[in-house]
Specification:
- There is one protein chain.
- This protein has 494 residues and is of the alpha+beta class.
- The strands form four sheets. Strands 2, 9, 10, 11, 12, 13, 14, 15, 16, 17 and 18 form an eleven-stranded mixed beta sheet that branches.
- A hairpin with a 5-residue loop joins strand 3 and strand 4.
- Helix 10 runs antiparallel to helix 11, helix 10 packs parallel to helix 12 and helix 11 packs antiparallel against helix 12.
- The protein starts with 20 loop residues before the first strand and ends in a 15-residue tail after the last strand.
């Protein structure tokens, strides 16, 4: 491994606190079992994009401990060291990230040139990763560091680089497409992928953060929530994410782990084509929705009523919230036909879509439903083939920055714009928020932008939810965090 080079005392060195551990400590145990048991993990979402790190599959890779980027998020949502052990801002548009000594899973070293190449590939991906929505950057290799320059000032670049979609892979990964099999840097190496059904991971013994206590992971992709719960109940898996609320009561309480998340379930209305291009019909849909019925009838207390794009887990949001203004006056639907779509990987969503169908029909709409597995729905939803989509979105998963989800989901050039919103006032408010560096002022600006977006009635927040994870009683060290980026790590074991 190369000799360590230091950039000197000018570098800001954030401290990474132990976080997100449940029932055990994070970190390898050199005195433990030399082999360690394998972990059996059930995930709710099968790969939708051949495990590309640039789209929805990125969080699958981070949750399984395969990939990591230059930074991570700590328990407070601040940028923390990962492959970069420190960084400093050189000017408004340029940052210098000092790299730690690390090794890729194919045995090659994590060099500045390799990191620069990996991030450059991310900037060239089509479509662009959500974390880079509206951002243009260049990366240059330096001695033991990389220098990143953005076209416009980007005060939250360290947060942005924590995104799972900006994971660093070895040069070998980019021969054809970005392939994470055996080319990442995390504690577990992806060795086999069996389509959309399962994957095999082995422990990566040269992980810079210490040797994992589990010898590997056998992952199964189980879209059906009842099947995931049954797998925990019958001992077929050790960890199962996204246990349905309806199934929680059927499991032993000792096997349930619950955590609040920054995830909001919303109704996204297609503003570019179809009936909801009319803001008056969007207003009618918003007035027809009773989110309390969703929280009580579907989530059974495991959620809060929708207050905005950001929910209670974003602890600063409520005190800064701005009420929307300038909303259109609702028109009478008079039998207007609309197609409402959702996916069944999160089992509450098909129930929610039926509740909303009844509410919208009571208001005068004629509603037809489409329910598919997510990988079969995403492309059509982004292409605007439905009039409305119900989805669950973690508002801080892409960048950890509250403005990030606004840029990607609700601006003209956003890469995950299910509402297909392109509104001049909303774009202006988001751009103003994105230009603010001070944390508190940026939060204030984000709430003003949220109000501008909600004022278009492109999105109707329904619920702010927690997640329930099934965990066998002999498992320790499961990583639960409100951003839903982590699940297993070096200290996860049984």
């Amino acid at each position: 491994m190369r000799r360590r080079h230091l950039l000197g005392s000018l570098l800001l060195t954030p401290v990474l606190t132990a976080c997100f551990a449940s029932g055990g400590s994070e970190g390898g145990d050199p005195g433990g079992d030399a082999d360690g048991s394998r972990l059996r993990v059930a995930l709710a979402f099968p790969p939708a994009e051949n495990l590309s790190p640039y789209g929805a599959d990125a969080t699958l890779l981070s949750r399984l401990g395969v990939t990591e980027g230059l930074t991570a998020l700590d328990a407070n949502g601040a940028a923390a060291p990962a492959l970069a052990e420190s960084w400093r801002r050189e000017n408004d548009r340029t940052w210098l990230f000092a790299l730690r000594e690390a090794t890729f899973q194919d045995g090659s070293e994590v060099t500045p040139a390799a990191v620069a190449a990996a991030l450059t590939h991310a900037t060239e991906a089509k479509p662009a990763p959500a974390a880079l929505s509206g951002v243009t950057l260049t990366v240059e290799a330096q001695s033991a560091a990389v220098r990143i320059t953005t076209t416009n000032p980007d005060p939250v670049l360290p947060l942005r680089l924590s995104s799972p979609s900006l994971a660093v892979l070895s040069p070998k990964a980019y021969q054809d497409r970005a392939d994470p099999v055996g080319t990442a840097t995390g504690p577990f190496e992806l060795t086999e992928v069996n389509g959309s059904t399962s994957a095999v991971l082995d422990r990566f013994d040269d992980y810079w953060g210490g040797r994992a206590q589990a010898s590997g992971i056998d992952a199964r992709f189980i879209a059906d929530g009842t099947a995931r719960a049954n797998a925990v109940r019958t001992g077929q898996v050790d960890i199962a994410e996204a246990i349905p609320v309806a199934q929680a009561a059927t499991l032993d309480k000792a096997t349930l782990e619950e955590t609040a998340t920054t995830r909001t379930t919303s109704l996204q209305l297609n503003t570019r084509s179809g009936p909801f291009k009319d803001p008056k019909l969007r207003a009618a849909a918003r007035e027809a929705v009773d989110s309390s019925a969703v929280v009580k009838g579907v989530f059974e207390g495991y959620a809060d009523p929708g207050a905005g794009i950001y929910g209670p887990a974003v602890t600063w949001a409520e005190g800064k919230r701005v009420q929307p203004t300038g909303r259109a006056t609702a028109a009478k639907p008079n039998g207007t036909a609309v197609t409402l779509a959702t996916y069944d990987n999160r089992p509450e969503l098909p129930e929610i879509v039926q509740v909303l169908q009844q509410q919208l029909q009571k208001a005068g709409f004629k509603v037809s439903l489409v329910v598919r597995e997510y990988s079969r729905l995403e492309s059509d939803a982004l292409a605007g083939k439905f009039d409305a989509v119900i989805g669950a979105r973690n508002s801080l998963v892409d960048t950890g920055d509250p403005v990030g989800v606004l840029v990607s989901d609700y601006t003209c050039d956003g890469g995950y714009n299910l509402a297909r919103l392109c509104d001049r006032e909303a774009d202006r408010a988001v751009a103003e928020a994105d230009a603010v560096a001070d944390t508190g002022e940026r939060q204030d600006a984000a709430m003003r932008a949220e109000a501008a977006i909600l004022g278009t009635d492109a999105v109707v927040p329904l619920a702010h939810q927690g997640i329930i994870v099934g965990v066998a009683t002999d498992v320790r060290g499961v990583l639960l965090d409100p951003y839903e980026r982590t699940l297993v790590g070096t200290g996860t074991r049984r």
